[in-house]
Amino acid sequence: MCDSSTTVCGDHTTANQLRSVSSYEQSYCVDSCEESCLPDVTYVTCSGGVSTSASNKESQPLLKRMDTVDASIVNNVFPDDPEFTAIVKDAENAIDNCVYPQRISQGSSGSYFVKNSAEIPKTIAVFKPKDEEPYGRLNPKWTKWMHKLCCPCCFGRSCLVPNQGYLSEAGASLVDRKLQLNIVPKTRIVKLVSKTFNYSAIDRAKSRTKQNVSDRFPRVGRHFHRIGLPPKAGSFQLFVEGYEDAYVWLRRFEDDPLPDNIQKEFQQQFERLVVLDYIIRNTDRNNDNWLVKYVKEATNGEVSPVNPWGSPKKQPSIKIAAIDNGLAFPFKHPDEWRAYPYYWAWLPYAKIPLSKEIRELVLPTLSDMNFVQELCDELYDLFKTDKGFDRHMFEKQMSVMRGQILNLTQALKEGKTPLQLVQMPSVVVERSRTEPKGRIRVMTDAFTQSFQQKTPFFTWC
């Protein structure tokens, strides 16, 4: 007996009704313009199941259409973070009330501002679907398609696993939380459905057809427990308010230098950005994808929001937010066309030795191999949720990360500057399974260290 939650089985009468759906789709779906926002359904027969032969193609650039659609129930619940769960639920309620995510015009991929269900909707998150990434099969932007077509020899970043940017976004947030850096807006993997997302014509036609069949033939429609567009998995990053692009503030600081106490606070925030980017080996950290929020001190004539009587003064503060972390966690160091440097390395803040504060914050944990292994294990639990997960490739990614951590701990101990840190030789720390000699043979983990020999053709870009 087939499970009614995943398959549709019936007698010859039901089969005839379902066969009529196909002909009905051709005659009716053209006139229909209404789309349901509910999830989709996978229909399979009793004799066969859902094919997974195409699942290993998930990590390839410009993905072709998969043979099957994930019919698992969307359950965006995070028991360890009820506050984040409530925010995602609020976003789902907003979509149900036709407050749809809005596509962001900037960038080379499909990303969306997600709003809440308040009377006056407010942006609460940024959602980046997996299949709308720069080289995803449903990317609504044409720039990367032209790149693929016109420059196949320079296609993408050869050091990154294609179409895993959404995992990289969530992975950067995980590293940020583990090290208590607090500069990455909280990011997790969720599944959302909205008609403003970029879907294929087939998915939209199926959605309209099933809705029309359900309305006209209720007995047949009862078999479709999922009517509508399929859910999209992607990174859901909380929106931060009051922040501006770093290059805007960096120009202002040149004309109007920061006070000494705020300058020290900004330097500490900058060092946290350095630690994050270096560990995850971010290949796309420009001055327009990290943000700065500077709250100046209120003058005597201003009214402080903390105290309406204007006393005491509002304390000045400055914060950094590291966004756009989708091009990180490479499986090798760049060694072909481009080096993908850290652009903050040319700032004057990168010429100041790493402070005692950042050393006390991260050095004890990064020097502990048990902590590093725990970090790798948590990243494994995150990355393996992807259908195209390759454990061998993931281990290469962790080998690069271990090498970055090794260099970072050495730089912290020696009091080097961020500029000196990025000039250190690229290291890879690989795991090797060794079998010690003796009467009792036990498999143990060992690590081998190696340096990168090949350098990119262009080392400055």
Automatic annotation (TrEMBL):
Listed GO CC annotations: endosome; lysosomal membrane; plasma membrane; trans-Golgi network
Family in the record: Belongs to the PI3/PI4-kinase family. Type II PI4K subfamily.
Domain PI3K/PI4K catalytic, chain residue ranges per copy: 98-431
Keywords: ATP-binding, Cell membrane, Kinase, Membrane, Nucleotide-binding, Transferase
Spans through the membrane: none
GO biological process, one term: endosome organization
Coiled-coil features, chain-numbered ranges: none
Keyword Membrane carried by entry: yes
One GO molecular-function entry: 1-phosphatidylinositol 4-kinase activity
EC number: 2.7.1.67
Reactions mediated catalytically: a 1,2-diacyl-sn-glycero-3-phospho-(1D-myo-inositol) + ATP = a 1,2-diacyl-sn-glycero-3-phospho-(1D-myo-inositol 4-phosphate) + ADP + H(+)
Location(s), subcellular: Cell membrane; Membrane
Chief localization: membrane
Protein name per UniProt: Phosphatidylinositol 4-kinase type 2
Top-rank lineage group of the source organism: Eukaryota
Membrane topology summary: Peripheral membrane protein
